[in-house]
Design a protein that fits this description.
Two copies of one chain form a homodimer. Chain A is built from five helices and 19 strands. Chain A is mainly beta. Chain A folds into two domains: 50 residues, SH3 type barrels (Roll); 204 residues, Fumarylacetoacetase-like, C-terminal domain (Fumarylacetoacetate hydrolase, domain 2, Alpha-Beta Complex). In chain A, strand 2 and strand 3 form a beta hairpin. Chain A starts with a strand and ends in a 5-residue tail after the last strand. Chains A and B meet through strand 7 and helix 4 of A and strand 7 and helix 4 of B.
Amino acid sequence: MVQWARFRSNDGRGGFGIFEETQIVEYEGDLFDSPRPAGRTIPMNACTLRSPCAPSKMVALWNNFHALAAKLAKQAPAHPLFLLKPGTSVIGPGDPIRRPAGYKGKIAFEGELGIVIGRRCKDVPAYEAESCIFGYTCVNDVTAAEVLNENPDFAQWCRSKGYDTFGCLGPVIATDLDWPSARVVTKVDGTERQNYPLSDMIIPPAELVSLVSHDMTLLAGDVIACGTSLGVGSIKDGATVEIEIDGIGALTNMLAPPR
Amino acid sequence: MVQWARFRSNDGRGGFGIFEETQIVEYEGDLFDSPRPAGRTIPMNACTLRSPCAPSKMVALWNNFHALAAKLAKQAPAHPLFLLKPGTSVIGPGDPIRRPAGYKGKIAFEGELGIVIGRRCKDVPAYEAESCIFGYTCVNDVTAAEVLNENPDFAQWCRSKGYDTFGCLGPVIATDLDWPSARVVTKVDGTERQNYPLSDMIIPPAELVSLVSHDMTLLAGDVIACGTSLGVGSIKDGATVEIEIDGIGALTNMLAPPR
């Protein structure tokens, strides 16, 4: 397994490479198209991690875990149920989640597994879908909970989940993740709030990629957020949310106090 | 008023410029950032128009015309109600609309005014929003009608409207359009199906830009589709849909027969 990360150096240079705890082994070119070793490393204390990719869109699943479906008394869907989060919603590890201007309501966290697409794909058969997956990252699918059902005629999925900073990704992209044996653990200010097995997923990653690719062309770097399970809740201004998945690491973001 | 178009020349070169019926006066650089005259023209018979911009996302409004709200017996919304169509859904004038693989249901057309954003903007006050509008284009907001409510628990707005080729834009971007005096006229195989005044809009363009920019950062080239009004319906394979708005021209796309 390899862990890819994007960084910004303390002197403002952007780059990417293989994450090795205390340093990043730098690469050049396109992460998704035969990147080349740059022949240098950067120590972690000389840089900050950014979101490990810059998706053109995030496809965010609803109702994709058996335990949550049972709690909500919803049928397991036959096809992925999703909304889109725009690329402008994406932030990386350590970046602050910002409360939308004027919104005083609840802000919810959702810890999720994110699939990072490795190449442009469309109408991919199930048996080929695995080859379209570059790797996996952690997602915090943030929601302005009171916007979602503010209007009685129209559930505002894209608006409530599409605000800038509401798509937290990172810290790295792990390739060849043994996702069926991993758990998503979400902590708020250090207290565990979610701890669910990815093996409880209704539509698993390769099938998700195949099915969603029948709905739209997926591009390299696009992210499919696999949906969350039990334990979602809201966070107060100043709270820190940590989403940890074995083999990927922990994605930490604070809900910034209002400016 | 100026009409901007993007083209591909018959020998495969891409470009953009000012559309003048029989020719395009070519420009260079960034359409949205001080483009420079290229000092040449290309005749229309030597090129094909492409979508006049390549949005990172389309923000597509629901319930934004009084006449349609009255027919549906819905309250006029206080804030724009929208879904997102991905950039991969966009096609230009003359490009075929493609039926999704395996989908045999109804495909609906919706003729709409599209706002083209001219610069990156976020939390724009109403009085500044006009300056963020580069111009206007015609939109056919295509929908796989039977996908929308296929699942009883989740209205699939992004999926039913997000398929590749379901975001038709063009033929040009008209700057300084006198939109309140214009009408949207939609014809299917030459028969008029929609003819509604843009003055019936509930939340007008500048206010839309201001309000949506409070929900997400808008980027240059992004499109806000203002929603449709009375007369939407479905089209058969092989049917041609024409959306015409005074001052912009006619956007024509055929629903291609299954391959």
